[in-house]
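Figure 6 in text form: structure in, sequence out.
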């Protein structure tokens, strides 16, 4: 393991606006014994895509999966994966999606059955997965990501994020991951029925009340070893 420490920092003018400055850092890389690593290994570490403003940087140059870990400005844990791992993950996702296409009719039927379940959690999981399938939205989660703008996904949508249209369509409008505005209209009749049913209760502010973790458990139970993002 190699750690990165700040060697020096100075203010330099911006190329686009010389009246403003930015902080430029230089780093030193230490092995586990606290000694500065050689030039070749130092350059290898330097070329990794680790932001200048990162803390508790740990580098694993020979690792097959995670090449580096650090904490960002907001204290969030970050990881840098190797190209081999990322390419392998893409290939595995491609295989899963191909299998899911073949199983899609069975999955849709299972979701329709789930929507009529007497167990409310299974029913809501089926609702959420159907909307993810139809819209391509992320499922979302309740973990605080410390982002400047709160992000939503299907499982955390508020009633104000959806609008029922006169032609039995549904219009979605909400801030998603990385602050991206998600705006989409669907004419899917089942999605319309789901949203209308979930909005009937006037006291509700959220459309759904289950976690994305439960949705994943439910998906694996009815369809096998898939991820929600495969939908």
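Output sequence:
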């Amino acid at each position: 393991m190699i750690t990165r420490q700040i060697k020096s920092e100075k203010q330099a003018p911006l190329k686009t606006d010389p009246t403003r400055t930015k902080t430029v850092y230089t780093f030193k890389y230490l092995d586990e014994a606290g000694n500065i690593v050689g030039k070749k290994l130092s350059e290898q570490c330097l070329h990794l895509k680790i932001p200048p403003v990162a803390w508790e940087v740990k580098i694993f140059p020979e690792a097959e999966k995670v090449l580096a870990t650090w904490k960002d400005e907001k204290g969030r844990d970050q990881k840098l994966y190797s190209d081999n791992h990322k390419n392998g993950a893409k290939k595995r996702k491609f295989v899963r999606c191909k299998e899911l296409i073949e199983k899609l009719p069975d999955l849709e039927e299972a979701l329709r059955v789930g929507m009529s379940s007497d167990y409310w959690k299974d029913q809501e999981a089926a609702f959420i997965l159907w909307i993810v399938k139809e819209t391509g939205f992320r499922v979302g989660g309740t973990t605080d990501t410390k982002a400047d703008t709160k992000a939503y996904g299907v499982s955390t949508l508020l009633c104000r994020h959806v609008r029922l249209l006169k032609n039995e369509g549904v219009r979605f409008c909400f801030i998603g991951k990385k602050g991206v505005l998600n705006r989409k209209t669907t004419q899917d009749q089942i999605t319309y029925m789901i949203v209308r049913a979930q909005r009937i209760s006037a006291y509700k502010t959220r459309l759904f009340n289950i976690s994305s973790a439960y949705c994943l458990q439910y998906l694996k139970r009815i369809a096998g070893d898939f991820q929600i993002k495969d939908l």
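Caption detail: The chain is about 35% helix and 25% strand.
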